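Re: beginner question about structure tokens

> Can someone show what the tokenized structure looks like for a real chain? I only ever see the sequence side.

Sure, here's an example I had lying around. Input first:
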Amino acid sequence: MCKKVAIVTGASSGLGREFARQVDKVKGIDEIWLIARRQERLVQLAAELKTATRVLALDLLQENSFEIIASELNQQKPVVSILINNAGKGKAGRFTSLERDYNDEVLKLNVLAIMQLTNIVLPFCAPGSRILQISSVAAFMPQPGFSVYAASKAFVLSFARALNEELRREKITVTAVCPNPMETEFFNNASGKSKLNRIKSLGIEKPEHVVRVALERSARGKDVSVSCVAGKLLRLVGKFLPNRVIMRVISKMGY
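And the corresponding structure tokens:
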């Protein structure tokens, strides 16, 4: 019998760490693969978990990281029951104020890395496998002052929903997880705590809730997970209001 594994990227902190903790409680998972740059944090997390772990200290901005993951999969030949593509980055600011290299990294990590890892993992998935692609409520509309990040998350949302339909016959579920801002290292680094509180404090979510809802919805075969009222309202606004109106409002709120 092939062992069943869960793979979590960006597992060293924030949402990824919480995903690992909750996946630890999922029945039928024999091993959790923890992937992130900071090995010491992965080792600390692994010590908390009851499920066996494999620590892979990798930077998904580096091409050889995918070769290492592919090699591990080919050697172990597991069934990947759960893949959580959580690694990502972003920074608020006008497009012209951000360094070109930084924006390149946002696209490499938020778009290309997700696509590459999904492609590598899919041959090891089986009926009942679940893939969770971490997007954002930013995917629901263009966002001045967060243009590259929002565009990258719109890609993730579209990619996940289309792939979910493509894999329906194989009974593999792909879910786009679209949380509102959370009090994690990522959002404090991306927006600055004061700005996050000023603009979106009413919609701040707890990672524990985001993860619980995401795992529940993926288990039910849903292609999108939005876990708070504010996020659901933003999704509706993105559907029914013209983008030019939305962007004007966002601009007036400040970058």
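Each token stands for a local structural state, so reading them left to right follows the chain. The chain has a mean pLDDT of 89.
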